[in-house]
Amino acid sequence: MDPLDRLEATIHARRVAADAGSSYVASLFAKGRAKIAQKVGEEATETVIAALAEPDTLASEATDLVFHLLVLLADAGLGLDDIRAELVRREGVSGHVEKAAR
Ligand SMILES: N=c1c2ncn([C@@H]3O[C@H](COP(=O)(O)OP(=O)(O)OP(=O)(O)O)[C@@H](O)[C@H]3O)c2ncn1[C@@H]1O[C@H](COP(=O)(O)O)[C@@H](O)[C@H]1O
């Protein structure tokens, strides 16, 4: 199994049954969607800062962002399959063409 799929499975398992005291993911779910969304915003900002000022840390910061985004998606009942479906839907459509058609 791909590491992203394994992480998603772990996140879902934590959502169903885990103690917030021993599981960071469970503690995020316990704090609620607003807090999870805030963490995604923080990690996005840290990713931008890394890209501009500390490229050596970019992969690590981007991983934090993806991790928290997966938690946010799970909280909303969404997951990697939804992202895959959306990517497939967009495949071959240039961003310029899509924007011009709006
Ligand atoms: N991939 C990750 C992962 N990436 C980052 N993090 C945590 O995300 C947190 C982000 O750090 P911050 O300083 O921003 O957060 P914080 O200070 O704790 O939070 P605030 O109180 O400041 O909001 C850190 O505690 C990191 O350890 C992760 N925690 C867990 N996982 C995966 O999730 C699995 C389940 O984790 P648990 O639910 O803790 O068992 C783990 O086995 C890992 O595979």
UniProtKB/TrEMBL annotation:
Its UniProt pathway annotation is:
Amino-acid biosynthesis; L-histidine biosynthesis; L-histidine from 5-phospho-alpha-D-ribose 1-diphosphate: step 2/9
Protein's recorded name: Phosphoribosyl-ATP pyrophosphatase
What family is this protein classified in? Belongs to the PRA-PH family.
Which reactions are catalysed by this chain? Answer: 1-(5-phospho-beta-D-ribosyl)-ATP + H2O = 1-(5-phospho-beta-D-ribosyl)-5'-AMP + diphosphate + H(+)
- Keyword set, alphabetical order: Amino-acid biosynthesis, ATP-binding, Cytoplasm, Histidine biosynthesis, Hydrolase, Nucleotide-binding
Q: Name one Pfam family in it.
A: PRA-PH
Span of the secretion signal? none
Q: Does the keyword Hydrolase apply?
A: yes
- For this protein, what is the EC number? 3.6.1.31
The family database entries (PANTHER family) matched by this protein are listed as: HISTIDINE BIOSYNTHESIS BIFUNCTIONAL PROTEIN, HISTIDINE BIOSYNTHESIS BIFUNCTIONAL PROTEIN HISIE
Per the annotation, which location comes first and is thus the protein's main one? cytoplasm
User: What does the UniProt entry say about where the protein is found?
Assistant: Cytoplasm
Organism annotation? Sphingomonas insulae
UniProt keyword ATP-binding, yes or no = yes
